[in-house]
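Chain entry —
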Amino acid sequence: MASLPTLTKPISETSFFLPKLNNLEFLRSKIRPLTRSNVFKNSTFSSDGQYGPTFDVPLLSCSEVIERMRTSREGHKTKQLYLAMYSSVFGGITTDTAAMVIPMDDHMVHRGHGVFDTAAIMDGYLYELDQHLDRFLGSATMAKIQIPFDRESIRRILIRTVSVSKCRKGSLRYWLSAGPGDFQLSSSGCHQATLYAIVIKDQSPPDHRGIRVVTSSIPIKPPQFAVMKSVNYLPNALSKMEAEENDAYVAIWLDGNGFVAEGPNMNVAFVTKEKDLLMPCFDKILSGCTAKRVVVLAENLVKEGKLRGIRVENVSVEDAKRADEMMLIGSGVLVRPVVQWDEEVIGNGREGPVTQALLNLLLEDMKSGPPTVRVPVPY
């Protein structure tokens, strides 16, 4: 395995990139006018098979592409800021969003042959980095991706990327891909597996209000693919969109036997009328790092008498909808109360006390938990 590569000077500071644009007029002044030498003439077909009017497609230089990319980014309103990106393709970190790109022939792009994971950044610490990293490398092995660096080198790259970003509260998302090489189906022509990482600062205010969910009509992934965190997220995206179209937050998947499975990017859990924390088995769904940590933290509520016990087993829809409380658990939502599933109200239709207690325990763990779950970032 290769060792940690030398982190080069950020691409945004090299002579390859032009200064940032202040406005669109500056962009127009720098892009050379369209001439016969740099414009392709093309035509469109009308419905009757005849050629329609021609349109011009400019042939851009590399610097012009970067300028247009930067201007497009600056003109796009988003609640997420991308503060730093690492790519093993160029062997370093950039803080210029115009340079946060990956090759089109990367098999993760056109074949979905890649895996990813995410770790939260809280008060300058990476939360559960090692737990997520272990799952990440396990997913890569299941996806038959040859890991390009040893585990410690990947860990150092990820921490260094967060350090460069100066982000103290946000998230770190990272990918392993089969790599660039060609547009074939097999990854045998790929030069080398690639590692990417990006630091994201979400400016959306936290929201822990109760939400409504629906049952997904989108088929759940087969267990072989559901247990690995791959970039094949089309079913997940369609499931989320289906929920939004029905005025719900997310749609909940059922497994092949009709038991409760998971949400599109989070686990689910319930508090029964007997005050047991009930969570579906992980054998056919993604083993959620946050969900497993919540199970550990929930032992405190058992000691305090707020929970009778903790069970991880098959959960029927009937039992789930009869529960006193329902919650979504994941690194993005943390612990989010569910107050309605389809047309049925969960419990009394309000955020439950156990759900709130688990959220508080998780937030406390993220801010002051043991070294096993909090990795300091050397800014």
About this structure: The first helix runs from residue 24 to 30. The mean pLDDT is 89. The chain is about 25% helix and 25% strand. Residues 279 and 312 are 5 Å apart (CA to CA).
